Amino acid sequence: MTRRLPRVRVSLNTLLLIAFLAIFDRGFTLLVPLLAALLHELGHIVVMLCCNIGIRRINLSLFGAEISGADVEGAGRAAQIAVYAAGAAVNLVCGLAAEGLGFGFFADCSYALAAVNLLPIETLDGGCIVAAVFSNCKYGHIIMHLFSGLSLFLLWLASSYLLLLYGGNLSLLMLIVYLFVTIYLT
What we know:
single chain; mainly alpha; 7 helices; globular
């Protein structure tokens, strides 16, 4: 059996952002988190290939990657957990390596990406791990919804506190709004 390479689609706004960063971001302050995100997604893809989970298409956008055609749910609970945990695991390993080499900003970006993705919120990797753990439970979807709601609420409290304390960065609050909309309003 020959393995086909997946089709990769990159949205126009992502290409424009990368071009903008390549031209104007002389300090590479925004390309570094993009590299951490790329390594995160490659972690998922490598484990999918190791578990013989087919991938038809990869769509890259400003909000992450969507891997289509992958039957992760049909692969068994252990494979599901491995696939969903792989991105954060790669970020943690890369963060430790970067920290050892003196690349503190890349290490911080990798750690932050791993931490956020491991939150037990439905659309994030941590939420997918919780869903896989409770997949055989009669009330698993209710448990997942409760985990997501509680996690979003606690994250909102933390982001509001940080916003009031430091009076600046709205990125965490914007992430919470995005997650809330994708989970509860779509």
